[in-house]
């Protein structure tokens, strides 16, 4: 057995192991290790590959941003930034029908930009915004649905750990991935707000009108958000700001690693100065970051081992050649892959899904003619894949964000959350269609940098 049949057999065995609750890192690592052993015919080749890939993976400087952005998110969760964002957004929008739900989306977008984690965004904002919406008489379906959907903004709005992981897997520039995600991220937040507006127009009782706050109070709560705005602006602006457009990247104030370190330091200083972060809280943040980093790095190592096995079998290239010889339209192939992401998202965790599928799907996508360069195709496909992964986070019955909200409010039946999240899934799918039809939406900022 060689080539594509061997790769498909290994993939099937790996998926079976995953569904039997074997950790994804071990499933990918063992499939890649023993698959390489089978191809080479000796364990020595597999051991040599394991040693090489372990060193290359863990010594990759680009991965330094992963623990730093994770630490930034852990600290931000403990410093009360989410409360300040929600208070400001609620004061400005709360007097409108459905305004507190819209404010929750705005606060999720702001906190997700600092936190970079969808699960942490959903959990933190759920604790902050859900009691307020319930106190104002919002329906349980809308309250939990909007927060589950808003939490997904953490995966797309940069800086995002999954954006970094995808950039490394696809061998793309991290900064360009961040830039490509900015406009789709803003569109996601605006689309969710529009969804809320339509929802309460059809069901006025789901989002009652609140009291109008005086202008002095609005400006006061808005001023309280300046640390969040400053940290995000300096972190992201430092990566892409002050560019000489004829020489992309030469004039950036920060490298991604430096920007992540700055963001961590600034967030911690904010917490200490405001008295909201203790030494014990900082140590706990370090511990949680170490746990998450270890998990991500070992999953990434397993993915690299499996990717090396696929390279030996030439399965991705053979699959790309087969697709080309069949004459399928590029858009048809793209839609089929996105549907796979949507189906996998119902039963798999988002990071594992990206690490498992990118080595297989990306060579096929890059071989097709979408009227753009291979690098731009890879960036565009990455943004589309991450958006569909977002949908997986809120797709019943296994969407992780749904269970996060159920844990925050266990008295609300999970079925109500399923109902409330459906309009936001429709919004996401419409956004995917828009980005498929108009790739320039995600590539415009990238093309400005050459």
Automatic annotation (TrEMBL):
Primary location class: membrane
GO CC field: plasma membrane
Transmembrane segments: 12-41, 62-88, 100-120, 141-168, 174-200, 221-241, 253-273, 294-315, 327-344, 351-372, 378-405, 417-446
Keyword Zinc: no
Membrane topology listed for this record: Multi-pass membrane protein
InterPro entries found in the cross-reference section: DctM (IPR010656), TRAP_DctM (IPR004681)
Biological role stated in the UniProt entry: Part of the tripartite ATP-independent periplasmic (TRAP) transport system.
Similarity-based family: Belongs to the TRAP transporter large permease family.
Assembly and oligomerization: The complex comprises the extracytoplasmic solute receptor protein and the two transmembrane proteins.
Name by which UniProt lists this protein: TRAP transporter large permease protein
């Amino acid at each position: 057995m060689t080539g594509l049949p061997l790769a498909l057999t290994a993939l099937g065995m790996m998926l079976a192991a995953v569904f039997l609750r074997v950790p994804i890192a071990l499933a990918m690592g063992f499939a890649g290790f023993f698959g390489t052993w089978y191809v080479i015919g000796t364990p020595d080749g597999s051991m040599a590959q394991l040693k090489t890939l372990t060193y290359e993976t863990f010594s990759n400087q680009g991965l330094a941003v992963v623990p730093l952005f994770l630490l930034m998110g852990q600290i931000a969760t403990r410093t009360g930034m989410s409360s300040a964002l929600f208070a400001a957004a609620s004061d400005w929008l709360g007097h409108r029908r459905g305004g507190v739900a819209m404010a929750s989306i705005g606060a999720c977008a702001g906190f997700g930009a600092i936190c970079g984690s969808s699960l942490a965004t959903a959990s933190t904002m759920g604790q902050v915004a859900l009691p307020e919406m319930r106190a104002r008489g919002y329906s349980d379906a809308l309250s939990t649905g909007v927060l589950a959907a808003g939490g997904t903004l953490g995966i797309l709005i940069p800086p995002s750990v999954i954006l970094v992981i995808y950039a490394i897997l696809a061998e793309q520039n991290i900064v360009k991935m961040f830039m490509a995600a900015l406009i789709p991220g803003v569109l996601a937040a605006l689309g969710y707000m529009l969804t809320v507006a339509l929802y309460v127009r059809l069901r006025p009782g789901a989002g009652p009108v609140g009291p109008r706050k005086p202008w002095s109070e609005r400006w006061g709560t808005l001023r309280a958000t300046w640390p969040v705005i400053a940290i995000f602006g300096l972190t992201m602006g430092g990566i892409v700001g002050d560019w000489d457009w004829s020489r992309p990247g030469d004039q950036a104030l920060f490298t991604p690693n430096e920007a992540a370190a700055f963001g961590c330091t600034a967030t911690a200083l904010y917490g200490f100065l405001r008295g909201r972060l203790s030494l014990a809280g900082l140590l706990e943040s370090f511990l949680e970051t170490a746990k998450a980093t270890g998990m991500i790095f070992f999953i990434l190592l397993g993915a690299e081992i499996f990717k090396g096995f696929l390279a030996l079998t030439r399965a991705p290239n053979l699959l790309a050649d087969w697709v080309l010889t069949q004459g399928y339209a590029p858009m048809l192939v793209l839609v089929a892959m996105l549907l796979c992401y949507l189906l996998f998202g119902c039963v798999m965790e988002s990071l594992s899904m990206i690490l498992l599928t990118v080595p297989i799907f990306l060579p096929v996508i890059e071989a097709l003619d979408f009227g753009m360069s291979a690098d731009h195709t890879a960036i565009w496909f990455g943004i589309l894949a991450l958006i569909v992964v977002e949908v997986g986070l809120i797709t019943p019955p296994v969407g992780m964000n749904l269970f996060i909200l159920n844990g925050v409010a266990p008295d609300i039946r999970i079925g109500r959350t399923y109902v409330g999240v459906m309009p936001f899934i429709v919004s996401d799918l419409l956004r995917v269609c828009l980005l498929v039809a108009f790739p320039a939406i995600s590539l415009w900022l990238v093309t400005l940098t050459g």
